[in-house]
Every structure is written in C-alpha cells, then in structure tokens.
Amino acid sequence: MTPVRVLIVDDSATIRHLLTQILGSDPGIEIVGSAPEPAVARQMIKDLNPDVLTLDIEMPNMNGLQFLERIMRLRPMPVVMVSTLTEEGAEITLDALSIGAVDFFAKPTRNVGATLEASAQELCAKVKAAAHARLRTAPAARPAVPAPVLEFNDQLIAIGSSTGGVEALMEVLSHFPANCPPTVITQHMPAGFTTSFAARLNRTCKPQVAEATDGAVLTPGTVWLAPGGIAHLEVGGRGTWRCHLAEGDLCTGHRPSVDRLFHSVAQTAGAKAIGAILTGMGHDGADGLLAMRKAGARTFGQDEASCVVYGMPRAAFEIGAVTQQLPLEKIGAQIMKSAARSAAGAA
Fold first, then answer.
1. pTM for this one?
2. DSSP per position, 64-96
3. 4-131 with 156-346: one CATH topology?
C-alpha cells in the first residue's frame, strides 16, 4: 500500500521535529516536508502535492484558521488540526472542523514531547484515516419549513460518533424539537473540548444541551454529551433514567466509549430506546448497537456516501446492528418520526 504523504505546518521547530519523528516512524506514512508558516506551506503544497496536511492553529502572519479557509476554498484537501488543550483552543478547533478540517489532535501545554510520544498511535491513525476521508462540501441552504408538532412518550435516544461527528451531530440535532425525548451522546473528544462543544450545540439547537454530570436526570428536551477523556457516560435508573459517569479503562480504545453507552441503554431502556451511529473511524459502538437492537430498540446508521469516515457505521452494519442506513441529513428527522410513531402507538 502506498504510504500517506504528509506535510507538517507548525511554527514551532520542536513540534515539527516531534511530529516528523512520530509520524515518520509509521511505515504507512511518508513525511514529504515541513513548513514554519502558511506562506512557505502554500508553495510546498503546490510543489509536493501531499495527501494530508497537519496544521497548527497559532502561527505568525496568518493563523491556521485563516489558512484553512484558503485551502478549503482554493485547493480542498484533508487537514488534521493540531490544537492546544485550552478553552480557546477548543473553540478555534470547533471553528476549524466547521470550515472543513477532517479531524484534530490536541497537544498539551506541558510535557509536549512525552505526551505526543504516548499518543503516537492515535495521531498516526488520525492522519491515515484523514487521507481516505470524504471531504465535506458546504450544504445547500434548506428552505425554512415549519417543524411538525410531535408528541413523544417514554423514549430514550442514544447517539455515538467520532471523526466528522462534530458537524454530523449539529446536523442531526437541528431536526430535534424543544420537547424531544431525552438524548445521550458519546462523541470521541479529549478532556476540555466537550464543554465548548456542548455550549455550541446548546446555542444552535432547540433542546437544552449540556455536558453530562453524574446523576443528571434524563428529562424531555434535554441532551447530555459525554465529557471527553474523563469517564464513560452510561444510563441507569429504574423509573427515572439518569446519567452515570463511570470511571474505568479505555473501552474499544476510547474513554468515553460509545459501546459502554449503548450497552447501558440496551439494559436500561430496551425497546424504549432508539440508537444511531454516525461517522467515525474504528468500530466503537458496533457491539453496543447490536445489543440495543437485540433488546428491541430501533437502530440507525449513517450511510457511506455521507460519512467523513465510514468506519463505525460500517462495523455496526456488517454485524447486523443497524435496522436502517440513511444519509446524514435524514437521520435526525427519522429518529423523531420513529419516536413519535411509538408514542402514538402507545397512547
């Protein structure tokens, strides 16, 4: 297999050296060059035609966000952002993902070298996945259509996502009304980033969206997002569903894990649940979604054509965990219709 050709763009010589060493150690990756700032990178992109760009956010003359906008407008290509583990870094990273970056890698502000080396496998996997990712185009403006007034009964919605999931979740939740069934989400993100993401979703969506806390009650019109990197989000409770933040090791390579969420929902809600697995690399969530389907839940998977990375949905589909595959833009509305039909049938 031909190695993925990578160009590193970062104003720090130390980071460029570390990224070159780490990525270059993977036989599936070839470092074709490194650039200290966008002007140099622009020419290197023309000369070297890399498959993937790793791009720092904070650089002189033109920051990474401005450069990313130019790239996606003039020469679209897979970009993995390298951002700092700070609140400001999280906000800018979310902006970068909305512009068109495929993924991001969070570098710490302390012990950078040791942390990057410890995360070498994750970083290499993100870069290689980016090379095969489907680049998003700006969605066409949809005409404003009044949302149907729906009534819901005792339902619980669980969603899992990873690479490409930030924009995918915003699309899905845009179809949720203010009185939607209680919803729990696991999106693969490091600690610190989910706080900003939950706040952004809360500003743009009709339901109330927040980062999950241990013991939070799942009530209609609320959406709870698993806190990144800290614990697994699970659902428990008899009569009243509640969030449970469970400490523990990585599960299918992640914390929080979609599998842990889905398995808990299968046990707690059974046939009253609806599950959806969205874009992402790997197979986290496939086994849990199958458990949900076997417990009587309706399950949906994002189709290949609309995924940034058709990894998690593919794994779930191939083991029979998915009741129906749909394009991203139809998933949110279909989840609501399913919940409403169930409510009507139960009335």
1. 0.93
2. HHHHHHHHHHHS---EEEEEESSHHHHHHHHHH
3. yes
Per the annotation, the verdict on 119 as an active-site residue is no
From the number of C-beta atoms within 10 Å of its C-beta (0-12, 13-18, 19+), residue 223 rates as buried
pLDDT, tens digit (0-9, with 9 covering 90-100), for 321-334: 999 999 999 999 99
Options 56, 175, 188, 342, the catalytic residue = 188
Please indicate whether residue 162 is annotated as part of the active site.
yes
**Residue in 284, 303, 338, 342 annotated catalytic:** 284
Task: Break the chain into its structural domains and give their ranges.
Answer: 4-131, 156-346
CB 35 within 8 A of CB 41: yes
CATH of span 156-346 = 3.40.50.180
Cα–Cα distance between 17 and 55 in angstroms, integer? Answer: 14
SS3 264: helix
State pLDDT tens for residues 283-305.
999 999 999 999 999 999 999 99
**Candidate CATH numbers 3.20.20.450, 3.30.420.310, 3.30.390.10, 3.40.50.2300; the one for domain 4-131:** 3.40.50.2300
For the stretch 249-275, pLDDT in tens is 999 999 999 999 999 999 999 999 999
Neighbours of 332 (CB within 10 A): 23
Residue in 162, 264, 306, 342 annotated catalytic:
162
| Rounded Cα gap, residues 164 and 171, in angstroms | 11
Beta bridge partners of 347: none
284 part of the active site: yes
Q: Could you tell me the two tokens for 283?
A: 């197979």
- E strand segments, the chain: 4-9, 29-35, 52-56, 79-84, 103-107, 156-161, 183-187, 208-211, 222-225, 232-236, 242-246, 273-277, 298-302, 324-326
What is the rounded distance in angstroms from the CA atom of residue 181 to the CA atom of residue 156?
6
Amino acid at site 179:
N
| CA distances in angstroms from 340 to 126, 138, 176, 296, 343, listed in the order given | 38, 30, 12, 16, 5
Q: Which residues pair with 107 in a beta bridge?
A: 84
Query: For strand 242-246 and strand 29-35, is the pairing parallel, antiparallel, or unpaired?
Result: unpaired
